[in-house]
Amino acid sequence: MHAPSLPDRSIETYADVTGRDRLERLRSLADALGDVRILHVNSTATGGGVAELLRSIVPVCNDLGIDTDWLVMDASDDFFEVTKAIHNGLQGEGIELTEEMKATYRAVNDRNAAEIEDEYDIVVIHDPQPLGLLDRLEKTVPNAPIVWRCHVDLTEPDDEYLAFVSEYTRRVDHAIFSRSAYADEIDVPTTSIVYPSIDPLTEKNRSLDEETMAAECDHLDPLSFEAPVVTQVSRFDPWKDQFGTLDAYRRAREEVPNLQLVLAGGMAGDDPEGLELYERVAAEAVDDPNVHVLTDLPDATVNVLQRRSDVVVQKSLREGFGLVVSEALWKRTPVVGSSVGGIPLQVEDGRNGYLVEPDDTAGAADRVVDLLEDEDRRTAFGANGREHVRERFLLPRQLADLLDIFVEVLNIDS
Prior knowledge:
The protein is an alpha/beta fold.
């Protein structure tokens, strides 16, 4: 296990993007949790939405006076191949789950759990990868409630994988999901629903001056913002359906001949499929100079890309939540997204973007063209998107929801 390095974060710096009453609520909750020590555990420090959330939540909690640690599992590729199979199985498409895979999962979790030596009052386990820590944590921190934070789309899980994960989830004290529909599919004692959020102060989401914008645009050459640009930002993962987005782009280009497409994504440390899929997508697009397949861009470059694109697409087949949607909406860029997972919670159809069925590439293309051909609509949708995210999907709201749950689980009078 290792503790990632963390940026400095002050709760007061969020005063410009959220209401003062919410900040006061956070301080009140922090006072109630002042003697509590919290541990968050996940499987990667980079490349995924969970890591991004923790990189902001943990330092803000410490700034509020809540003693909070974050540990990341140390594991081999063999383990991550197993946990990616578990992830895929929980989202409905898993290979056979063998006894050897189960043994690898348990052994790596046991080895990591043995390295947790400090005392904690509550432990938050993120996603299925570290659930196996339970076998040892139940002995080493027997009085600490275990909260499982599930970020996965559990709409149609594979029964075999669901049964395996449920061996652990039924033993946690509480589970948090991103949508109520997910909680119906798995065996857990008590549940809460908390929408994820973006941090508006990070390099990826903060406001940028014109000089920075110009410099980052230069880094994206030969992409030109003088012609229309459609972008999808997501990990290179089969569930993100970059091939479907390519098909939608090709259909849209019949109406908008100078259209450009950007498929940008990072490589999560716990996802062994990422590089292979990136190479397949790049090979599929290699003959079209107007398609730009990019990986591991700096956060400031992603920020500019989401701001300067005319439309952002998120054509996922499954999606736990999809915070890249809120990232784009926060930057006043309308989104065409699939009606799966958490995307419909963020995209208000006909108000800040459009929703299409996940396999409807023709419909996605039509909606992209509708937006590209109507600048006034794009502007109105952009303004609506910014306010929708401000109200529902910024970090102070999510943190207040989480702290409320910790207070409840620990039976503290708030």
